[in-house]
Amino acid sequence: MDASVSQSSHPVSRLRTSPAVRLLFIVEFLTSAGANFLQVGIFFYTRQRFEWTLRSNFLLAAMQGVFYVLGAMNADRLTRIWSRRGALARLYAALAVVALLGAMLPYSLVLAMLLPLYSGLNAMAWPILESLVSEGLESDAMSRRIAVYNLIWSSAGALVLALNGTIIEHFAGGVFAIPAIFHGFCAVLIYTSCRSRPDPAPASEHSHAAPVKIEPELRRLRTTALWLSRVALPATYVLIYSLMALMPSLPVMHSLDTARQTLVSSTWMVTRLLTFVALGFTAWWHTRPRLLVAAAWLMLLAFLGTVIRPSELLGHGNLSTDLLAMIISQGLLGIALGLIYAASLYFGMVLSEGSTEHGGYHEALIGLGSILGPGAGAIAQTVRPGNVQAGIMAVGGVIGASVLAVGVTGLILRFRRQKSAEGS
Q: Residue 113 has what pLDDT?
């Protein structure tokens, strides 16, 4: 790599994990576990418990997305009313109450109102947590810190989704009771930390601090990667929430019980977790924005491989072949999703020096994806009720359009760079 594109203008500092950061990591794990029960794995619960149709699951996912965007965009405002830790403590207490109400009132209509509210509250919590975890670090140390952060929340998600079906079958109330306990514990932890230490100001408020000097070429590469990853990021959650809504209705799943359905459906989460591990211990991807264009195309192809059975295309086959193809495609899907997510969070945080506001943009794009994909699927199911293929085509169309947008963005940025070079 060219010396002008070094990873940092400062020596690589050793990443130290203080007790305060370890506490945040514990909170993160429990928060992710709760969110995956009630925002990702919930579609298996609604299908098994209430026999919701695919359209109903799509509508739930879309409503969760609407509230998620609203919550994420107001996270920074909330920290200006309270401190970041003060806001987190209140949010986790509210999440615990909402989850507890879901456990006490397990009725279809009640849950349809509670789950979007839960999603919005969670969306306000994540940017604040991201800001606290990543503040005050140089680029290399931040890369490693964010890698650990990604590793923790994704491992919680993979574990929860793998076990979710077993919990639904044997302790259905636990889908809400367990998150209620987790969030209540997080509220206590954060409240205790508020009392024991002051909340430092976000990086964006350090008006007296000298800005970190970054070589122009390195800044250009980071900015390009940020644009590409954030154009692609909504598509990843178009895919995630649409796929989770679709999974219980896919023909290949009909021969499996709920426990095995969620176990198989967690494959992409495992490979996404492994991708986060690989990215955390390397830096070569920091200066290769084109990888994000490749990841976007891989995401589209892997989605189609996950939801379309080989036996449908070839006219022959069996369940084992279809199931194997789904698992392999999910594996590739996790790699693409991991790279895009890691890039969006890392480049956003390193360019903004860990601001809550930038974390809010990251989370809002996630919410936007969970509106567009499930929303398109719900419209398709309204036009052609019960037709799974119609839902797949609608969601695939949104993902395809997003992938093209990533390619166009790359070309525009390249054209601007060439014009700038000619002008200089």
A: 97
Helices (H) and strands (E) in the chain, counts: 16, 0
CA distance 69 to 75: 10
Q: CA 396, CA 163: separation in Å to the nearest integer?
A: 28
CA gap 364, 124 in Å, rounded: 10
Spell out a b/e string for 22-50, using b for 16 or more CB atoms within 10 Å of the CB, else e.
Answer: ebbbebbbbbbbbbbbbbbbbbbbbbbbe
Task: Give pLDDT < 50 ranges for the chain.
Answer: 1-15, 201-211
**346-351: Cβ within 8 A, 24+ apart:** 346/142, 346/143, 346/146, 346/286, 347/222, 347/223, 347/225, 347/226, 347/229, 348/226, 348/230, 349/130, 349/134, 349/142, 349/146, 350/139, 350/142, 350/143, 350/222, 351/219, 351/222, 351/223, 351/226
> According to the model, what pLDDT value does residue 199 have?
56
User: Exposed/middle/buried for 415, CB within 10 Å: 0-12, 13-18, 19+?
Assistant: exposed
> DSSP readout, 124-135?
HHHHHHHHHHHT
Q: What is the DSSP secondary structure assignment for residue 201, as one 8-state letter?
A: P
| Residue type at 190 in one-letter notation | I
- pLDDT number for residue 112: 96
Note the pLDDT of residue 283: 85
Q: How far apart are CA 72 and CA 82, in angstroms?
A: 16
Q: Which pair of structure tokens corresponds to residue 311?
A: 């036996």
Contacts of 103 by beta carbon, 8 Å cutoff, 6+ apart:
173, 176, 177, 180
The structural domains of the chain, ordered by start, are 18-199+214-423 (1.20.1250.20)
Instruction: Assign 246 to helix, strand or coil.
Output: helix
| CA distances, 68 to each of 34, 49, 65, 94, 246 (Å) | 15, 24, 5, 15, 20
CA distances from 33 to 102, 122, 157, 195, 303 (A): 16, 12, 6, 26, 24
Tell me the pLDDT tens digit for each residue of 267-282.
999 999 999 999 988 8
Tokens (6 digits) for 11: 């020596």
- The predicted model scores a pTM of 0.86
pLDDT on residue 114: 97
CA distance 423 to 294: 30
* Residue 419 burial class via C-beta count within 10 angstroms: exposed 0-12, middle 13-18, buried 19 and up: exposed
